[in-house]
Every structure is written in structure tokens, then in C-alpha cells.
Amino acid sequence: CQVIVHDVNELTEKLFPIVEAMQKHFSAGSGTYYSDSIFFLSVAMHRIMPKEITRIIQVDLDLKYKTNIRDLFDEFDNFPERAVIGIAREMQPVYRHTFWQYRRENPQTKVGEPPPDGLPGFNSGVLLLNLEAMRQSKLYNQLLEPTMVQKLTEKYHFKGHLGDQDFFTMVGMEHPELFHVLDCTWNRQLCTWWRDHGYSDVFDQYFQCEGEVKIYHGNCNTPIPED
């Protein structure tokens, strides 16, 4: 077993010029903080990791594993041809809220709608990054360009604060083929904040998750069930 520790400052230095443009659209703070770049690590991981690293699983710290993480690696084999990232859907109506203006202008849209037919956006707590595919995807790398980020944020009237998750969600609305959607049981989010903030009527359509949970995600400091 080999453990390699990466220096955060070093990574941030490499990341900043790549993700600077998107930070103003998807960061919590006002303006572009240099330190915020680390919240966009997954977006440009393929540009800063050594070429010999072809696949990476990136996970949040507030997770509890109910199965062997090795099983999650098998999901790479299920990627459709053009997919570069594996990610689960967001399980709250956060993007129903964020895309409110686009939804008002496009009443028939699936953007922000709940599963199974809607596009509820993504949650980046569990990420499968096929670095090789990310490097080779012309489309994905075009989407990192500042002009493309600007174009999409304008189209969707998008202003977020959740870093990489916002970027993947917005791109997923436009190019769903770039993503392999993980089953909710691989990222069973527990946060219920939006239930109490104006969306109780539709909340359960987003929050429900059938099947045996493989990974619990205690997002927004939600306690994770004991065994």
C-alpha cells in the first residue's frame, strides 16, 4: 500500500489559473479567493495529476462506508462511451431553487426537476474521475475555458456557491453524456435543510432512495445512523 501526500499550497498554485474564471460563479465568497481554488480540485484533477494516474475516487470526509470502497471502483466499468465522471444526483431541491429564473423562462424544462425524469443536479460528495477520459475529452476541456463557463452561466442565469458541484451540475444540464450517474445508494445524502426552507411539498421526490445504502453522506452536519 502506497500513500502519497500532496501539498495543498502546491496544488492550489497549479489549480488557480485553470479554475479562476469559474470561481466567481460558484464560490460562496464575494470575488475570487485564491484559497477557494481547492474546492475546484476535481474539475481540473486531470491537468495536475501525473499522467500515469488514470483513475481517482474523490470523496468528502463526512461519509460512512457500509461496503468495501473497492466495489465503487467497479463503477468505472459502467461508464458510457463519452462519460468522464461518475457522480450521484443531488437529493435536495437545491438546484430547483438555483435555476429558478431559467425554470420560469422555460416552464417545460426538466432542469431542476426531481428524478427519475428530471435533472435535479449533482452532489460531489462521491466522485469517480476517469482522468484518462477527462484528458482525452475535447468537449470536457472546452467547457473549462472561461468563455464557455461564462456562456453557460448566462444561459442558465446561474450563480452558485458549492464549488465543483455547481460546475458539474450546470455542465450536466447541457451535456449529460459526460456523466455516469451513480445510484443514490453510493451517496445517500442525509441533509434535509431544504425541507424546512420552502420546499416541503416536493422535498421527498428528491430525497427518496430505494435500495441498501452503500455510503452514507452526513452533509450539512447531519448525524449518520449508527449500525
From TrEMBL:
InterPro entries: Glyco_trans_8, Nucleotide-diphossugar_trans, XXLT1
Listed GO MF terms: xylosyl alpha-1,3-xylosyltransferase activity
Record has Protease as a keyword: no
GO cellular component, one term: endoplasmic reticulum membrane
Protein keywords: Transferase
Organism superkingdom: Eukaryota
GO biological process: protein O-linked glycosylation via N-acetyl-galactosamine
PANTHER family: XYLOSIDE XYLOSYLTRANSFERASE 1
Name of the featured protein: XXLT1 xylosyltransferase
